[in-house]
Amino acid sequence: MADVLTAEAVRGELDGLAGWSGDPAGISRTVELGSFPDAIAVVDRVAAAAEELDHHPDIDIRWRTLTFRCVTHSAGGVTHRDVALARRIDDIVRSAR
To answer: Which residue has the higher pLDDT, 97 or 64?
Structure first.
């Protein structure tokens, strides 16, 4: 099982993740896309990446606004797996804009 990152380690990782915030209990980012179909296309791509990584974010969809939350539930907090997933989400969002 992956180790939960300390508060200091989470802060350090968040420094390299634009738009993400959080603490050892979870990290999140909200993004706005151009349209509802654009937002759903991003969700589809994130779903494929999550399957590839075997690690899945919580996703809230509000019209064209998406909120991603990453936490390793089995570990009880944020692990390096969540940071890796956040980076993949960032890549996907960046390419959609």
So the answer is: 64
pLDDT of residue 69: 98
| Mean pLDDT of the chain, nearest integer | 96
Q: Which residues pair with 12 in a beta bridge?
A: none
In DSSP terms, 31 is beta-bridged to 66
Give the global pTM: 0.94
Of 40, 36, 97, 46, nearest to 69 by C-alpha is 46
Angle between helix axes 80-96 and 36-53 (nearest 10 degrees) is 150
The 3-class secondary structure across the chain, one letter per residue, is: CCCCCCHHHHHHHHHCCCCCEEECCEEEEEEECCCHHHHHHHHHHHHHHHHHHCCCCEEEEECCEEEEEECECCCCECCHHHHHHHHHHHHHHHHHC
